[in-house]
Amino acid sequence: MSDLHAVLWDMDGTLLDSEKLWDIPLYEYAEKLGGVLSPETRERMVGSNVPTTMRLLFADVGIEPTEADMADGAAWISRRTEEVFRAGLPWRPGAQEALKSVRASGVPMALVTSTERSLTEVALDTIGRDLFDVTVCGDEVDGLNKPLPEPYLKAARLLGVDAARCVAIEDSPTGVAAAVAAGCTVLVVPCDVEVPTGERRVFRDSLAGVDLDVLKAL
């Protein structure tokens, strides 16, 4: 894409190897409810937002939750996840270098994550706020979360660019679906879940060596 307007980065599983850290509170909360979170359900949670994750979790342990149950569970998981995040967030291979390289080129950049703002702010202590012109979080899209296109469309609107002239960088089927639906070309670097092939998707094993020239060549 020679006429590249902006680069839109996912966070969990793309920049940070944090999906494995999410395992800790999710499995702990399932046990707290007296159940065990199945690997299949955990896989379906990858890339999703908090309400979807909570619905999947309660269903998996066989509990029909009230709204209060959902809110209490989400708050517990958020507090526990913040503890885990503050203990240290590992980078995905090549991610830190790719971020800095693309930023240095001057192209606008956004962070587009399903993680809620409070936890994203914790993660940005590691990633670096100055690398992004805008950030869009999972609780800032009026419930129109990935796999719907709104997170990526909102990022493009905030940057004042055409989403169809943007490259999104994603790791999960949910995130890739959102970016494709928004019209982006997607650099797919799978992490914990296999991503199906499809339109406007270019696959790569890692972010190592990714720079503006690589993204323009997509």
UniProtKB/TrEMBL annotation:
It comes from the Bacteria. Coiled coil: none annotated. Signal peptide: none annotated. InterPro entries: HAD-like_sf, HAD-SF_hydro_IA, HAD_sf, PGP-like_dom2. This is HAD family phosphatase.
